[in-house]
Amino acid sequence: MRKKELTHACWEICTPQFVYNGPKSIHNLKHILQKESLERLFIIIDPKVAQTQFGKDIKNSLEGMQTFYWSEFTTNPTIEQAKKGTERLRAFQGDVLIAIGGGSAIDVAKIIGLFVVNHDSLSIDHTNETIHDNFLPFVAVPTTCGTGAECSPYAIIKDCSMVKKLAIESKSFIPKYVILDPDALQSLSQEMIAATGLDTTSHAIEVHISRQSTPLVRLSTCSALVFLGKYLEKGIYQKEPEALEVLQDIAFTTRLLYPRTGLSIAHGLSHPLGAYTDLHHGMLVGLVMPAALRFNAPACRALLDEAASLLGVPYTGPDGVAQWIEDILIKSTICDHIHKHFKGMEIPKKSIAKQAMESSSMCSNPRIIESYQEIQDILQQSLKLLEL
Ligand SMILES: [Fe+2]
Hints:
Layout (H helix, E strand, L loop, with lengths): L17 E4 L6 H8 L4 E6 L1 H4 L2 H9 L4 E5 L8 H14 L3 E6 L1 H15 L12 H5 L3 E5 L11 E6 L4 E6 L7 E4 L9 H20 L5 H24 L2 H15 L2 H4 L3 H13 L3 H16 L4 H11 L8 H12 L2 H9 L6 H8 L15 H13 L4
Parallel strand pairs: 1-8, 2-3, 2-4, 4-5, 5-8
Antiparallel strand pairs: 6-7
Helix pairs in contact: 4-5, 7-8, 7-9, 7-12, 8-9, 11-12, 11-16, 12-14, 12-17, 16-17
The protein binds fe (ii) ion (FE2).
The site of fe (ii) ion has 6 residues, from α7 and α12.
């Protein structure tokens, strides 16, 4: 169940090569494409983003170039959707992948890129550099303040035949170019800022308390937690431009850390929960974080207290961070949203808990998990929040 303790862990840092950030940084997109002599643009864009001013501005800026816009994917993209996208890309003969959206758009772009060079297969021979050498040029434009998919070597894709989310890893999935333009966040709803912001907050806390965390990574989580405490609620409730920019930047920088440290059972549980319920990842991580933190608290008390202090949560005592997250879930209406989505739905808690036991987060979770029943209890506790 638990991987052998590493005494001399190696942190291989893989990052995008070029990162543009700040308001209006999207204006660099055309320049990047011209610099790389890319002419046939296969653009994977979240359908909601395509309707926003940000999406329309991108379209206008690329006028006159050969473009194909593809949006036939869902919140939890599936293998079948990626296969259809691959067919479209091949027919169009695209020479660059441009992903514009949240984790869904960026992850499905990665899988399409993989299918193109790997005979439509998810099985990767990591000793063979062919995939990396032939992977299409990749540009990511994240439009949320969560996931960090734009700098992650993983792609999450749903396998409908097993009702399971698969995490596929390849260094090719790190885009060469990332554009972090906070203007992309202006059209997000309060719920979506909260959901993606809570995802990022969970990443920062989970890395901070991970069993595999070290002072090296906590140098970064400490500053992320301070800025999350200062800006998360301003971003959610007031949509302050400065707050949204900081949240987008934290999503990026925090995601760089956890290929090294792993996450906690909150993520281990939220992925199978998402596979069964088809709800937004950030909402589900936020929902299970409080119960996961309470479960883990005995094993990481000092680090959790430190996180509470850095975040500046308005509660004292051992339960402060969990209570603060619960307040955000309720005030931002995420709880209401989940409650409505789950209404009449049978949640197979045992199957979800058993799937979570196979998660890579098991070996980084602060407290040793002895059985799937403990995970089922965390899920049960989380669902109680919806009854309030
Ligand atoms: Fe996440």
